């Protein structure tokens, strides 16, 4: 009986959810933004899926925190902030995580914005 308790306790503590897989198309896109691998990085669909999912999950946590704290933020900024604003911020965070394009840092995950994005 004691051997069954550890897996059950672990499952209760960690939960049974898995990170959400972010849907992508074959052309390395996220929503309406296309990415290309930077020089020296293989343009691999598996790597892209891993990177975009990791970036999306990080941005999603911030989005959920922003939604939860939207009332406090409204008091700070003096007006309510719509969920659409937080969604745009989440998209920008994903792009920045993948490319570091918005902050001007070196390439994030080895991806760059495609010329037509």
Automatic annotation (TrEMBL):
It comes from the Bacteria. This is Lipoprotein. The lineage of its organism: Bacteria, Pseudomonadati, Pseudomonadota, Gammaproteobacteria, Pseudomonadales.
């Amino acid at each position: 009986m004691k051997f069954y308790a550890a897996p059950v306790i672990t499952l209760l503590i960690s939960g049974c959810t898995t990170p959400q897989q972010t849907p992508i198309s074959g052309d390395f896109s996220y929503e309406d933004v296309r990415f290309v691998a930077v020089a020296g990085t293989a343009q691999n669909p598996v790597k892209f899926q891993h990177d975009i999912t990791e970036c999306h999950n990080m941005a999603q946590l911030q989005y959920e925190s922003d939604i939860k704290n939207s009332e406090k933020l409204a008091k700070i900024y003096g007006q309510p902030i719509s969920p659409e604003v937080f969604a745009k911020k989440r998209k920008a965070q994903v792009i920045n995580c993948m490319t570091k394009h918005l902050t001007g840092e070196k390439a994030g995950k080895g991806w760059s914005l495609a010329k037509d994005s």
